[in-house]
Design brief:
Blueprint (H helix, E strand, L loop, with lengths): L2 H10 L1 H34 E7 L4 H12 L6 E9 L5 E9 L2 E7 L2 E15 L4 E11 L4 H18 L2 E2 L1 E5 L2 E4 L4 E2 L12 H14 L1 H7 L4 E7 L6 H12 L2 E5 L8 H10 L4 E5 L15 H6 L14 H10 L6 E7 L17 E4 L5 H11 L5 H14 L5 H10 L4 H6 L7
Parallel strand pairs: 8-12, 11-14, 11-15, 12-13, 13-14
Antiparallel strand pairs: 1-6, 2-3, 4-5, 5-6, 7-10, 8-9
Helix pairs in contact: 3-4, 8-10, 11-12, 11-13
Bound molecules: adenosine-5'-triphosphate and magnesium ion.
């Protein structure tokens, strides 16, 4: 049969006709769908605005809190638990609810905003080991101002939560992350140091912060290093926390014995530390030991020196010195170091320029004991403080403030007992 006859035959076939009709509907649907897609893309491009914020961005956590506040009715939540163990042993936990990954709709500024929080399952942020996340805000209209308003509000909300509090940061990968929830500022007066010591330190730091021009005029890097040294429990860490509170600064806590710390990472962290913060290197002796104290080769053979005190990890001593020198920024850079063993520190680490002010924080003297007693028992006559100091010093030597605090806590409501039982002070 010739081809034309075959096609004619098909045309007369009723099934073929029906099939042709179906194909026609299918094509129309496909075209309509395509049209809708194109229309949607067009609509999105011209009548919708979106804002994507990645978890790496500073404002990400602020925005999560903001969303939590505004998406009050959402039923899908995830939890972030903060855990804080106080020095006194009291443990405090707090649950922060955040909207879980997925879509949330928020009514804001007389507009509906769709908030989509996405979490990548396959991708993790190698620096922090957390899943890669982002939030995307979508709103109708063309006015971007709404996003600025949201960001601003989120920032203010976060700052309000931190008001009157000291934020602690730790290094997570290549960035600083707040840890725990901000602590209530510790008043400076609650840390009783020997007469004049606290004032000297506070004046020095304030003078430094207040005079950036002095440094730039002379071409001196705008940074200042402090070393607090002395026996354990005498108030080094407490004083630095209180000082940060006094200045309204946060604290960036850096552990040099962190085995994952490398020269590059330390350098980077030092340069990206949040503004208005104190970089705190606790127990600097634990990571490095003075080169003079390093065992000679024959001693090394017998390992007379504890291995823990040799440089650990990939952080080298010269790397540490370089990162201390390299922190040049227009912001005041304040580095505090603490140690129990100043004699173990290499002279290069504590030379002027790296450590500009060294302060010994020692065992309690008479003045300090008197004032601690008066602070703890303000209702008692002032002379009782002197009696307490007198008796404490005659019964013990080398009393640390932490021991005195522990003794007072045992005699919380018994100021007379605190003096009478002075023998138990070193418990
Ligand atoms: N001078 C002080 N005045 C008031 N309280 C103090 C003082 N020193 C220490 N304390 C109390 O003792 C405890 C331990 O103090 P802190 O951690 O500041 O000591 P430290 O000098 O940093 O010790 P370490 O060398 O072991 O780190 C804290 O609970 C603190 O409140
Ligand atoms: Mg300490």
């Amino acid at each position: 049969m010739p081809l034309s006859d075959f096609l004619d035959g098909l045309k007369d076939n009723p099934y073929f006709g029906a099939g042709f009709g179906l194909v026609g509907v299918g094509t129309a649907l496909a075209v309509a769908r395509k049209g809708a897609q194109v229309g949607m893309i067009f609509f999105r491009r011209h009548y919708m605005i979106t804002l994507e914020v990645a978890s790496k961005d500073k404002s990400y956590h602020w925005l999560l809190s903001w969303i939590t506040k505004h998406a009050r009715h959402t039923q899908h939540l995830s939890v972030k638990t903060s855990y804080l163990a106080h020095e006194s042993g009291r443990v405090h936990t707090q649950f922060d609810f955040h909207p879980s990954p997925g879509n949330h709709i928020i009514w804001y500024g007389r507009k509906w905003i769709r908030v989509e929080r996405t979490r990548e399952k396959q991708m993790i942020d190698l620096h922090t080991g957390t899943p890669w996340e982002s939030v995307t805000f979508t709103a109708l209209g063309r006015d971007r101002q709404i996003f600025f308003n949201i960001l601003q509000e989120a920032r203010e909300l976060a700052l309000k939560q931190e008001e009157g509090r000291t934020v602690m940061y730790t290094a997570m990968g290549a960035e600083w992350r707040p840890f725990g929830f901000p602590r209530r500022r510790r008043p400076l007066s609650s840390v009783v140091l020997e007469a004049g010591v606290a004032e000297r330190l506070v004046d020095d730091v304030k003078d430094f912060i207040g005079n950036p021009k002095w440094y730039t005029d002379r071409g001196i890097p705008y940074r200042r290093g402090y070393l607090l040294y002395g026996p354990p429990g005498c108030g080094k860490s407490s004083f630095i926390t209180a000082l940060a509170g006094e200045l309204g600064y946060s604290i960036c806590l850096m552990s040099l014995s962190d085995r994952t710390l490398s020269d590059d990472r330390l350098n980077h962290l030092m340069s990206v530390a949040p503004q208005q913060s104190i970089i705190l290197l606790e127990d600097v002796d634990a990571a490095f030991v003075s080169r003079e104290l390093l065992p000679t080769e024959s001693e090394q053979h017998f390992q007379v020196y504890p291995l823990a005190f040799q440089g650990m990890g990939r952080l080298t001593f010269s790397g540490l010195l370089n990162s201390l020198d390299g922190v040049a920024s227009s912001e005041a850079r304040i580095v505090f170091m603490t140690t129990n063993y100043i004699e173990r520190l290499d002279a290069a680490l504590i030379r002027p320029g790296r450590v500009d002010l060294k302060q010994y924080i020692g065992h309690c003297g008479r003045w300090q004991l008197t004032h601690m007693y008066r602070r703890f028992y303000p209702e008692e006559p002032a002379s009782e403080g002197e009696i307490f100091a007198e008796q404490a010093l005659s019964a013990h030597s080398e009393i640390s403030a932490a021991q005195v605090q522990g003794h007072f806590l045992l005699h919380k409501a018994d100021p007379v007992g605190a003096i009478k039982n002075i023998g138990q002070l070193k418990g």
